[in-house]
User: Which sequence fits this backbone?
């Protein structure tokens, strides 16, 4: 099969780990390139109204281009990292552009003067940071990662962004059931664990080990694979930003919505009045109750955030931490928060598009974005975390 090749002048970065080019009036989303480059690209997908392509030859390189530290990164190879070919400071500049573009276009926010370095680095550099890694297994039982936008598995010798404790596990030397998923965890307390599943969404094969995590002066015992921030410095950076934005006062009431095992509640509780964590995952709530039992002003409410907040007996709140999954909080939750007139909301977001849409909803309801931090908590990938402060206009 001869793949269609195009020569392209590459335009701006877009949300999703690619840049935008045009070919004969059609939009092309190009991976493995950088703004300002001229590349030869192979078309990987034709969709109504746009093409997807992989840059396979760089005719005019960007000054920000580097040799990828991982030999498995690149066109047709492991799809885990998007920006291995980009110098680390330039990765953060790309993420800053994506955040500003999303907030401008979807969020209706425009005041970004002098914010070119909005996305801050976390300590430790761009490699060896990932404390949760999910491997796929190919037909011959070898562990690896999916090719971008494909179910093909690319076996690897090691993952350069994985935490050293995960790189030291013998996962890549072993043979696993074909089609299985192998999840590796390394924690702040020095624990490691491996959980396998027959398929990506299937139940764990065998009992799930518990691992310890340390943060904010507390120890959590969690199921391996249960939610915890993936970068070793993320919890400290995010809780620091949330406390800075909320500036809690003694006696103020706080909600930690989508609170997991209560990491933000643990940081808030010594500084304010009652803190309520709302979280749907039974195991996370149980782990949080155990870990924070000495904090008498913290309570956990297990349930769906929208349903819990629909209860009118949930009346007064001063401070809200809002840390929803990638899909965002959505209008019903934003309306329910605004109806309680909090003094400040600190919104922790892993998807800038969902964040921007929710910021627009807050804006329509009288709350504006008055603080903005962002962290490169997923170096080498297109992902980053945004923490926005919303206050009544
Ligand atoms: C991004 S994580 C944040 C967890 C926690 N704030 C932390 O930093 O460790 C989102 C959390 O929301 C929970 N969740 C997802 N949908 C939910 C819903 N509709 N209602 C309540 N919790 C939900 C997930 O189980 C997960 O623990």
Assistant:
């Amino acid at each position: 099969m001869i793949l269609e090749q195009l020569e392209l002048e590459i335009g701006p970065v877009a949300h999703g780990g690619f840049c935008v080019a045009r070919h004969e009036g059609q939009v092309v989303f190009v991976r493995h390139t950088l703004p300002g480059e001229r590349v030869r690209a192979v078309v990987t997908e034709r969709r109504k109204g746009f093409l997807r392509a992989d840059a396979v030859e760089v005719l005019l390189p960007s000054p920000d281009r580097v040799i990828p530290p991982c030999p498995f990164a690149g066109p047709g190879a492991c799809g885990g990292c998007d920006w291995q070919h980009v110098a680390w400071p330039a990765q953060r500049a790309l993420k800053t552009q994506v955040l500003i573009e999303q907030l401008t276009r979807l969020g209706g926010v425009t005041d970004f003067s002098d914010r070119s370095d909005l996305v801050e680095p976390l300590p430790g550099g761009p490699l060896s940071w990932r404390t949760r890694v999910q491997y796929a297994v190919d037909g011959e039982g070898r562990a690896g990662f999916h090719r971008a936008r494909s179910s093909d598995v690319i076996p690897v010798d090691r993952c350069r962004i994985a935490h050293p404790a995960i790189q030291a596990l013998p996962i890549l030397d072993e043979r696993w059931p074909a089609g299985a998923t192998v999840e590796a965890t390394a924690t702040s307390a020095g624990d490691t664990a491996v959980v396998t599943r027959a398929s990506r969404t299937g139940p764990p094969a065998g009992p799930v080990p518990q691992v310890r995590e340390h943060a904010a002066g507390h120890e959590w015992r969690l199921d391996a694979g249960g939610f915890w921030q993936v970068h070793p410095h993320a919890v400290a950076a995010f809780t620091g930003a949330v406390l800075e934005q909320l500036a809690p006062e003694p006696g103020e009431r706080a909600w930690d919505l989508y609170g997991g095992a209560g990491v933000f509640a643990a940081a808030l509780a010594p500084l304010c009045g009652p803190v309520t964590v709302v979280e749907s995952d039974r195991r996370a709530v149980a782990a949080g109750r155990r870990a924070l039992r000495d904090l008498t002003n913290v309570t956990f409410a297990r349930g769906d955030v929208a349903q819990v907040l629909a209860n009118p007996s949930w009346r007064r709140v001063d401070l809200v931490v809002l840390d929803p999954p990638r899909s965002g909080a959505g209008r019903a939750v934003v309306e329910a928060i605004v109806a309680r007139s909090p003094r400040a909301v600190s919104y922790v977001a892993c998807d800038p598009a969902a964040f921007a849409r929710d910021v627009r909803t807050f804006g329509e309801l009288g709350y504006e974005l008055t603080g903005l931090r962002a962290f490169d908590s997923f170096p080498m990938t297109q992902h980053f975390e945004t923490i926005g402060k919303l206050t009544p206009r």
